[in-house]
Amino acid sequence: MTLGPVMLDLDGPELNAEEKEILRHPLVGGVILFTRNFVDVEQLGRLTTEIHGVRRPPLLVTTDQEGGRVQRFRDGFTALPAVHLLGRHYELDANDALETAETLGWIMATELRAAGVDMSFAPVLDLDRGVSDVVGDRAFHRSPGVVSSLARRYIRGMAAAGMTATGKHFPGHGAVTADSHKALPEDRRPYVDIAEDISPYDFLVNEGLGAIMSAHVRYAQVDAAPASFSRWWLTDELRGRLGFRGAVFSDDLTMAAAEVAGDMEARARAALAAGCDMILVCNDRPAVLSLLDALGDYNEPASQVRLARLHGRKSVERDALLASVQWQHARERVRHLTDPPPLQLDG
Q1: Whole domain around residue 269: which residue ranges?
Q2: Is position 251 annotated as part of the catalytic site?
């Protein structure tokens, strides 16, 4: 059995009988975990072990553990700052900010790997243009050069922990005001302007970026279809011009912005035809079940190869991790990023 193209969510902190059956479906390839699936670190480890044991090769287990307001697991995990703080620190001390970015990527990933999670959908590569509330402090910086530099080190830290990075949201969500969870954002800039948002992807593809997640945004002067459903964006631009060879994930197809593509089957087929290797369908179990029936014998060998590379590699036992000098030093560095130094007044 290979990894299928559908990633879905779970109802709670334990697998129920229906979910075990669904996860054995050949078109399922992964699970995304949310806060409702988390009680404590020990429970999370049991859950990921059970998910991985359902079939072979094991399903991908993912989450969103960016930091700041997007951190699904908190109790027992390091409190991760929003990466915008790295961008602010970069303006004061670039070298230290780069070292901290690598530390932050490592501690985020190694704690998840110790709990059996394969991937966190991070880092955000959107530019902070000051207009998108849904992006906001999830972005490193306004400058594509700073984003590229910080993200490269963050990704290096993730890799050292055995986790593949996912850059999101291609080709860029930072220049639109609408929240794609609630509406379809439209970016009306010409391609020459959007190219600045693409710049971090261009840089990081050459650095070996392993996965990307597409944006549910329509770039009206480039293509009528939102990027998640656009063969021009995902195949011609991303795989063609940028030479990307990693895996492409859609953003959640139950989001309001995805409704423009039709019903769930139409959305899934459009995303897969555009170039997505795996599609996310969250918080709508009936839609998942109908989609698994509708896709029939869908099979894309190239996608299966790309997805198989995403399993978490090395991991460390949690007790050994918490006792390690590296983890303790990493926690201290993260704390210093979050807590500014005391104000020094001249005597």
Answers
A1: 6-334
A2: yes
